[in-house]
Design brief:
Number of strands: 7
Keywords: Oxidoreductase
Radius of gyration: 17 Å
Family: Belongs to the short-chain dehydrogenases/reductases (SDR) family.
Oligomer: single chain
Distance between the termini: 39 Å
Strand order of the largest sheet: 3-2-1-4-5-6-7
Organism: Streptosporangium jomthongense
GO molecular function: oxidoreductase activity
Largest sheet: 7 strands, parallel
EC number: 1.1.1.-
């Protein structure tokens, strides 16, 4: 196998949660371009179909799936559907997440639970459901989308629930990596910095002081800049790697 061959995902089946837009959409594109058939999940079937249609138009095998990651029943159904339509899942990318800026004293309990349910419980439910099948088959790769926010405090908006959820995702990644290594399952995480998306308008002037200037590279990132790293973590190129958190933040956390 050549070096470039080790990055190929030809013949693999990948699931990307929260893949209708932003980072998830870019990751689905990257996995598909590397050769994987991709199940695109979103909270609504319409959003999933729209994203899957775009992937299909570029020659990628894509399956739209409506999925609420906080519902374990829906998660189990997703795993069954993907298995029936595309085949057993080789790669799971836990990307679905929400970020709601609110100071701690202004955060109602129901908002705290909503963020933790999506960002942490969703990773747990999907990892368990897919991981059980991977263990039966002798292996697979799980990539959790964490955040540099697990290591810093975001500004200018306070986000205690989001920060706590992403720190937990990083630790869950390490816990599953240690426990599931004997089954041939590798579990790693990607920790993006400030990435420009619809939900994160870091190109606006009010974000420059806190999100752009502190980074060593003095800029924000784009979703497509995360794609190659996820392809690396998904396949044979990272075969001796598990429990790692790969930070891609333009050097923000260096200081």
């Amino acid at each position: 196998m050549t070096v470039l061959d080790s990055f190929s995902l030809q013949g693999k089946v990948a699931v990307v949660t929260g893949a209708s837009r932003g980072i998830g959409r870019a990751l689905a594109q990257a996995l598909g371009e590397a050769g994987a058939a991709v199940a695109v999940t979103a909270r609504t079937v319409e959003a999933a179909e729209r994203a899957a249609g775009e992937l299909q138009a570029s020659g990628i095998t894509a399956l739209p799936v409506g999925l609420e990651v906080t519902d374990p029943v829906q998660v189990d159904r997703m795993v069954e559907l993907v298995g029936e339509r595309l085949g057993p899942i080789d790669v799971l990318v836990n990307n679905a997440g929400i970020s709601i800026g609110r100071a701690a004293l202004d955060t109602p309990d129901e908002l705290w639970r909503e963020v933790l349910a999506t960002n942490l419980d969703g990773v747990w439910y999907c990892s368990k459901a897919v991981g059980a099948r991977m263990a039966e088959r002798g292996g697979g790769s799980i990539v959790n989308i964490g955040s540099m926010s697990a290591m810093i405090v975001n500004r200018p908006r306070w986000q205690p629930a989001y920060l706590a959820s992403k720190a937990a995702v990083h630790q869950l990644t390490k816990a599953l990596a240690a426990e599931w290594a004997p089954y041939g399952i590798r579990v790693n995480a990607l920790a993006p910095g400030y990435i420009l998306t619809e939900a994160s308008p870091v190109d606006q002037p009010e974000y420059r002081e806190w999100c752009v200037e502190p980074a060593a590279m003095k800029r924000y990132g784009l979703p497509e800049e995360l794609g190659p790293a996820v392809v690396f973590l998904a396949g044979q190129a990272s075969s001796f790697m598990t429990g790692s958190v790969v930070v891609i933040d333009g050097g923000f956390t260096l200081f």
